[in-house]
């Protein structure tokens, strides 16, 4: 399904027809299909699960500017989408969760809309200097270089934006109409945001902000240099009401553990999440 949210066209899907609402988002810039199987496990446990393509992900519209960080824009979009779907009617609250970039968005959501959060599902938490530098490069530096060398046509030709155009063809016109210098300026701000937060407990939130989140949280640390196990453990310690769950006991000295390695433990992770959801749904 597709709808207009905060001026952007977003693709979304609802899995399950009854029960408390849960919103799940994947990591990186992956499409909502990356969390669909997990959403199906959660829905089978008696929940109604919203998944969606965030801006510049999957089949949704591209985001090319703005002063807010991308994960903050995503949080605002998710809140507006939940309101449109009546998931927040009559002071209802929703479980918000995600992996990596989806985790950052979930924390931003909790900080911006605490009254709307029933609980948080946070896995593969990002933090530290290596993660900040790698994500700044992966998310922005390569596209800044493309825009500088070949304008927006070069940006359109990169694999990620080429896929966005294939999934939602109007993205090409929006990209080609954009001012390359404005896009470079926005991506430079976003990139610097990662670098500036390298010393935070987790990328996206200070210790004071984390300690202010009152909603219960289920934390499942990652196991690689972008999602260090210690960063997830720190998040669980700083959140006032967090449950720490260890899915992978060992930290691996690799840039990123591939999603396939996590997919084989999907049922085990779903059981952890469902246990938390069932304890906190009332």
Query: Spatial order of the strands in the main sheet?
Result: 1-2-4-3-5-6-7-8
Number of helices: 11
Strand content: 5-15%
Q: Can you summarize the main beta sheet?
A: 8 strands, mixed
Are there runs of 5+ residues with pLDDT below 50, and where? none
Question: How many distinct folded domains?
Answer: 2
Head-to-tail CA distance between termini: 29 Å
Please write out the topology.
Elements: E1 2-5, E2 8-15, E3 21-25, H1 36-44, E4 48-52, H2 70-84, E5 94-99, H3 101-112, E6 117-123, H4 129-157, H5 159-167, H6 170-177, H7 180-196, H8 207-211, E7 217-220, H9 229-238, E8 242-244, H10 259-263, H11 266-280
Parallel strand pairs: 3-4, 3-5, 5-6, 6-7, 7-8
Antiparallel strand pairs: 1-2, 2-4
Helix pairs in contact: 1-11, 2-3, 4-6, 4-7
What labels describe this entry?
2 domains; 11 helices; Rossmann fold; 282 residues; 8-stranded mixed β-sheet; 8 strands; alpha/beta
Textual characterization of the structure:
- It contains eleven helices and eight strands.
- It is α/β, with parallel strands linked by helices and 282 residues long.
- It folds into two domains: 207 residues, Alpha/Beta hydrolase fold, catalytic domain (Rossmann fold), CATH 3.40.50.1820; 63 residues, no CATH class.
- It has an eight-stranded mixed beta sheet with strand order 1-2-4-3-5-6-7-8, sandwiched between helices.
- The longest helix is centred in the middle third of the chain and has 29 residues.
- It starts with a strand and ends with a helix.
């Amino acid at each position: 399904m597709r709808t207009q949210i905060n001026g952007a066209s977003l693709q979304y899907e609802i899995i399950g027809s009854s029960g408390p609402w849960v919103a799940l988002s994947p990591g990186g810039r992956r499409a909502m299909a990356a969390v669909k199987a997990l959403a199906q496990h959660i829905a089978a446990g008696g929940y109604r699960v919203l998944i969606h393509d965030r801006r510049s992900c999957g089949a949704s519209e591209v985001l090319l500017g703005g002063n807010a960080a991308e994960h903050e824009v995503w949080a605002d979009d998710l809140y507006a989408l939940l309101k449109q779907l009546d998931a927040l009617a009559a002071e209802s609250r929703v479980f918000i969760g995600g992996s990596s970039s989806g985790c950052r968005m979930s924390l931003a959501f909790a900080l911006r809309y605490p009254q709307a959060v029933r609980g948080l599902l946070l896995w593969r938490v990002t933090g530290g200097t290596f993660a900040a530098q790698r994500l700044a490069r992966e998310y922005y530096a390569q596209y800044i270089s493309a825009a500088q060398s070949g304008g927006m046509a070069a940006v359109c030709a990169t694999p990620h934006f080429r896929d966005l155009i294939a999934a939602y063809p109007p993205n090409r016109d929006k990209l080609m109409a954009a001012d390359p210098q404005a896009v470079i300026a926005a991506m430079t701000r976003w990139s610097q945001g990662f670098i500036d937060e390298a010393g935070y407990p987790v990328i996206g939130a200070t210790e004071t902000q984390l300690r202010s989140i009152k909603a219960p949280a289920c934390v499942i640390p990652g196991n690689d240099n972008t999602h260090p196990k210690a960063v997830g453990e720190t998040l669980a310690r700083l959140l006032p009401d967090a449950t720490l769950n260890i899915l992978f006991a060992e930290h691996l000295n690799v840039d990123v553990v591939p999603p396939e390695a996590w997919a084989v433990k999907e049922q085990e992770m779903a059981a952890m999440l469902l246990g938390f959801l069932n304890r906190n749904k009332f």
